[in-house]
Specification:
The protein has one domain. By secondary structure, the chain is mainly alpha-helical. It has 5 helices and 4 strands.
Protein backbone atom coordinates (compact mmCIF):
# COMPACT_ATOMS: atom_id res chain seq x y z
CA UNK A 1 0.00 0.00 0.00
CA UNK A 2 1.38 3.41 -0.98
CA UNK A 3 2.01 5.90 1.83
CA UNK A 4 -0.91 8.21 2.50
CA UNK A 5 0.93 11.55 2.29
CA UNK A 6 -2.26 13.59 2.21
CA UNK A 7 -3.63 11.77 5.26
CA UNK A 8 -0.33 12.22 7.10
CA UNK A 9 -0.34 15.94 6.32
CA UNK A 10 -3.92 16.29 7.52
CA UNK A 11 -3.05 14.33 10.67
CA UNK A 12 -0.19 16.75 11.42
CA UNK A 13 -2.61 19.67 11.03
CA UNK A 14 -5.07 17.94 13.37
CA UNK A 15 -2.32 17.56 15.97
CA UNK A 16 -1.51 21.27 15.71
CA UNK A 17 -5.18 22.08 16.34
CA UNK A 18 -5.02 19.92 19.48
CA UNK A 19 -2.06 22.00 20.62
CA UNK A 20 -4.07 25.19 20.09
CA UNK A 21 -6.86 23.65 22.19
CA UNK A 22 -4.37 22.82 24.95
CA UNK A 23 -3.00 26.37 24.85
CA UNK A 24 -6.53 27.77 25.20
CA UNK A 25 -7.07 25.54 28.25
CA UNK A 26 -3.73 26.73 29.72
CA UNK A 27 -4.93 30.34 29.68
CA UNK A 28 -7.10 29.55 32.71
CA UNK A 29 -5.03 29.04 35.80
CA UNK A 30 -3.08 30.72 38.55
CA UNK A 31 0.25 30.85 36.69
CA UNK A 32 0.69 34.05 34.64
CA UNK A 33 3.85 32.76 32.95
CA UNK A 34 1.99 29.68 31.75
CA UNK A 35 -0.90 31.84 30.53
CA UNK A 36 1.61 34.12 28.80
CA UNK A 37 3.12 31.18 26.95
CA UNK A 38 -0.30 29.79 26.09
CA UNK A 39 -1.42 33.08 24.55
CA UNK A 40 1.45 32.97 22.08
CA UNK A 41 1.19 29.26 21.38
CA UNK A 42 -2.36 29.85 20.16
CA UNK A 43 -0.93 32.04 17.40
CA UNK A 44 2.13 29.87 16.75
CA UNK A 45 0.33 26.51 16.54
CA UNK A 46 -2.62 28.05 14.72
CA UNK A 47 -0.32 29.47 12.07
CA UNK A 48 1.49 26.13 11.86
CA UNK A 49 -1.87 24.48 11.17
CA UNK A 50 -2.59 26.76 8.24
CA UNK A 51 0.93 26.34 6.87
CA UNK A 52 0.68 22.54 7.02
CA UNK A 53 -2.66 22.59 5.19
CA UNK A 54 -1.43 25.04 2.57
CA UNK A 55 1.61 22.81 2.07
CA UNK A 56 -0.66 20.00 0.91
CA UNK A 57 0.49 21.39 -2.45
CA UNK A 58 3.74 19.46 -1.94
CA UNK A 59 1.92 16.10 -1.81
CA UNK A 60 -1.14 16.77 -3.98
CA UNK A 61 -1.89 18.62 -7.20
CA UNK A 62 -0.40 22.08 -6.62
CA UNK A 63 -2.99 23.95 -8.71
CA UNK A 64 -5.89 22.18 -6.99
CA UNK A 65 -4.52 23.04 -3.55
CA UNK A 66 -3.87 26.67 -4.50
CA UNK A 67 -7.43 26.97 -5.87
CA UNK A 68 -8.82 25.47 -2.63
CA UNK A 69 -6.52 27.55 -0.42
CA UNK A 70 -7.08 30.98 -2.05
CA UNK A 71 -10.51 31.71 -0.49
CA UNK A 72 -9.33 30.57 2.96
CA UNK A 73 -6.25 32.76 2.72
CA UNK A 74 -8.26 35.77 1.54
CA UNK A 75 -10.78 35.32 4.38
CA UNK A 76 -8.01 35.07 6.98
CA UNK A 77 -6.34 38.21 5.67
CA UNK A 78 -9.62 40.14 5.92
CA UNK A 79 -10.69 38.85 9.34
CA UNK A 80 -9.68 41.33 12.08
CA UNK A 81 -9.53 38.74 14.87
CA UNK A 82 -7.41 36.31 12.86
CA UNK A 83 -5.13 39.20 11.83
CA UNK A 84 -4.78 40.20 15.47
CA UNK A 85 -3.72 36.67 16.47
CA UNK A 86 -1.28 36.52 13.54
CA UNK A 87 0.19 39.92 14.46
CA UNK A 88 0.51 38.86 18.11
CA UNK A 89 2.38 35.74 17.01
CA UNK A 90 4.60 37.73 14.66
CA UNK A 91 5.46 40.33 17.33
CA UNK A 92 6.51 37.56 19.66
CA UNK A 93 8.52 35.56 17.13
CA UNK A 94 10.15 38.41 15.25
CA UNK A 95 10.56 41.08 17.94
CA UNK A 96 10.36 39.21 21.24
CA UNK A 97 7.40 41.36 22.28
CA UNK A 98 5.41 39.64 25.00
CA UNK A 99 1.74 40.47 24.67
CA UNK A 100 -0.17 42.20 21.98
CA UNK A 101 -1.07 45.84 21.59
CA UNK A 102 -2.93 46.85 24.73
CA UNK A 103 -2.87 43.28 26.07
CA UNK A 104 -2.65 42.70 29.81
CA UNK A 105 -3.04 39.67 32.08
CA UNK A 106 -5.12 40.42 35.13
CA UNK A 107 -6.27 38.33 38.08
CA UNK A 108 -9.90 37.31 38.16
CA UNK A 109 -12.07 37.39 41.29
CA UNK A 110 -12.65 33.64 41.44
CA UNK A 111 -10.35 31.96 43.99
CA UNK A 112 -7.74 30.71 43.45
CA UNK A 113 -6.62 33.66 41.34
CA UNK A 114 -6.94 32.95 37.65
CA UNK A 115 -5.60 35.11 34.88
CA UNK A 116 -7.60 36.27 31.93
CA UNK A 117 -5.92 38.05 29.09
CA UNK A 118 -7.85 41.10 28.16
CA UNK A 119 -7.22 44.05 25.95
CA UNK A 120 -7.15 47.67 26.93
CA UNK A 121 -7.81 50.03 24.05
CA UNK A 122 -9.64 53.01 25.47
CA UNK A 123 -12.44 51.76 27.67
CA UNK A 124 -13.48 48.82 25.50
CA UNK A 125 -12.24 46.81 22.58
CA UNK A 126 -14.40 45.64 19.70
CA UNK A 127 -13.24 43.26 16.99
CA UNK A 128 -15.02 41.38 14.24
CA UNK A 129 -14.70 37.71 13.37
CA UNK A 130 -16.60 36.10 10.50
CA UNK A 131 -19.08 38.96 10.52
CA UNK A 132 -19.80 38.78 14.27
CA UNK A 133 -18.81 41.64 16.55
CA UNK A 134 -16.98 40.70 19.74
CA UNK A 135 -16.83 43.24 22.56
CA UNK A 136 -13.86 42.99 24.95
CA UNK A 137 -12.99 39.42 24.00
CA UNK A 138 -10.30 37.63 25.95
CA UNK A 139 -7.62 35.55 24.25
CA UNK A 140 -9.46 32.50 25.60
CA UNK A 141 -12.62 33.43 23.67
CA UNK A 142 -10.63 34.27 20.54
CA UNK A 143 -8.69 31.01 20.94
CA UNK A 144 -11.88 28.94 21.02
CA UNK A 145 -13.17 30.74 17.93
CA UNK A 146 -9.81 30.17 16.22
CA UNK A 147 -9.98 26.43 16.99
CA UNK A 148 -13.45 26.27 15.43
CA UNK A 149 -12.18 28.10 12.34
CA UNK A 150 -9.12 25.84 12.02
CA UNK A 151 -11.39 22.80 12.27
CA UNK A 152 -13.50 24.15 9.39
CA UNK A 153 -10.37 24.44 7.25
CA UNK A 154 -9.28 20.92 8.25
CA UNK A 155 -12.67 19.38 7.44
CA UNK A 156 -12.64 21.21 4.11
CA UNK A 157 -9.18 19.77 3.34
CA UNK A 158 -10.38 16.28 4.29
CA UNK A 159 -13.38 16.63 1.98
CA UNK A 160 -11.38 18.12 -0.87
CA UNK A 161 -8.23 15.99 -0.82
CA UNK A 162 -8.98 12.89 1.22
CA UNK A 163 -12.53 12.09 0.14
CA UNK A 164 -13.87 13.08 3.56
CA UNK A 165 -12.74 9.62 4.65
CA UNK A 166 -12.00 9.33 8.36
CA UNK A 167 -8.42 8.13 8.37
CA UNK A 168 -8.59 5.87 11.39
CA UNK A 169 -5.71 3.88 9.89
CA UNK A 170 -3.50 6.63 11.38
CA UNK A 171 -2.73 6.01 15.05
CA UNK A 172 -4.61 8.16 17.52
CA UNK A 173 -6.80 9.98 15.03
CA UNK A 174 -10.07 11.31 16.28
CA UNK A 175 -12.30 12.61 13.55
CA UNK A 176 -13.41 16.17 14.21
CA UNK A 177 -17.12 16.95 14.03
CA UNK A 178 -18.25 18.67 10.89
CA UNK A 179 -19.28 22.28 11.47
CA UNK A 180 -22.89 23.25 10.86
CA UNK A 181 -23.48 24.83 7.45
CA UNK A 182 -23.42 28.63 7.40
CA UNK A 183 -26.65 30.23 8.50
CA UNK A 184 -27.72 27.43 10.86
CA UNK A 185 -27.75 27.48 14.64
CA UNK A 186 -26.54 23.96 15.29
Amino acid sequence: MAPDYVGACIERARLMIERVETAVEDLDGPDLDRANTAAFLIGVYGHATTQILHNLKSVYDRDAVEKWWAPWQAAMRKDPMLRFLWNMRSSFLKEGVIGGPGMVGEPQDDPPPYWRWRFIVGSSWIIDHLGATLTNPGVDEMGRLYVAYLRRILVSAMDEFHGGVPFDHLAGVRVLPRPAPSGTNS
